[in-house]
Amino acid sequence: MLQPLFRRIGRLESALSHMRHGRRRSSPTKVLLHVGMSKCGSSALQVFLSSPAFEKATNGRCAYLALHADGKLWRGDPLIEHAASSPRGYCSSHLGDAISAFTPNQKQQVRRLLNDLSRKYDTLILSCEGWGQNPQRLTDDCIFADDAFHVEVLAYVRPQLEWINSAWWQWGAWTALPAGQWINRQRRMAQWDALARQWAAKPWVKKIDVRLIDGDVVQDFMHYLGFQVPAQPRVNQSLPGILLRVLQHNRQLRAGPHDSAIDFVLARHLQLDAGGTPWILGPRKVEELLAFFRHENEQLANRLSSEQRETMLDDPRWWQAEPYLLRPVAKPVVERLDVAQLEQLTVATLEAINRLDAELRACRSGASSS
């Protein structure tokens, strides 16, 4: 007779606790997963999300979180401090294998933390550019697979040929594979609509949006959330050709495809105007890739909003060879480096050393005076 009464008292105590410590959630916790894609503005977006400016710009309505392999959920000052101390300048969530391998206790703990945060924030945001092209790593029983969450997925994409050229210099150039072989293996990673379908098929994903990289990704993302911010500096732009060539010739500086921290450091400190990233796709490869992606892109266009669809259909980089045939084709690997460009790089390096030395001396002077 008394058990129903005790259960009712327990529910009332729980409700009072929620009211004391924050607003009570009558609806599922909204979780937005930014899943990339890679080389589609993720670094610039994550730098902004990892800064105090993000939460301020949302008037405290959104929180950025980073889920790590050990089950810890970073946010606030610890996340901001970690991002500031990282060569990349941001903090992002773990790629996914470890997340799917969480123990039941770890899953319960993370879910509890997410639900607790939802009493303070309207939307919880997590980001990992590696999720987008690896949807299988967030399994159907991962931490987000819970009725307590309303999970939406957002992915940014760009024309595949530009992505492939950029991805070669990010990863492929630092493998043992020839460029043609690497491209043939990796082109499936740029089948944007196929990847979107895989995300949409997950039972715990309520909605997926795909957006085009068209200008400032931070401004677009914040507009997507319903907020406005000024233009943001670009981050993780591909390095100038001469710098990439020097790294190719000195592999101790850039040993493998995932040893990219030095890219961020050099881009941050070297003021170098030495041309763009080398374009390695010749006319035959351009035609082959456009044919490979055409049907995929027709499907992708149908997935987009009407405004974004019009933008995509009007952009020849998705459909035609002409924008690429005007670009000079460079070899993926060269034996000799351009002497004039090497001199420019040397000057930029010496200027950076001088500038950083002045900053270091100023820091030491300030530390000793305090």
Please describe what this structure looks like:
This protein is an alpha/beta fold and 370 residues long. It has one domain: 3-Layer(aba) Sandwich (Rossmann fold), CATH 3.40.50. Helices cover 50% and strands 10% of the residues. The chain has 17 helices and six strands. It has helices at 2-21, 42-49, 52-57, 76-85, 97-100, 104-117, 129-132, 160-170, 179-186, 192-200, 217-225, 241-249, 261-269, 283-303, 306-314, 322-325, 339-369; strands spanning 29-34, 62-67, 73-74, 123-127, 149-157, 205-212. The protein has a six-stranded mixed β-sheet with strand order 3-2-4-1-5-6, with helices on both faces. β2 (62-67) and β3 form a beta hairpin. The model is unreliable at 1-24 (pLDDT under 50).
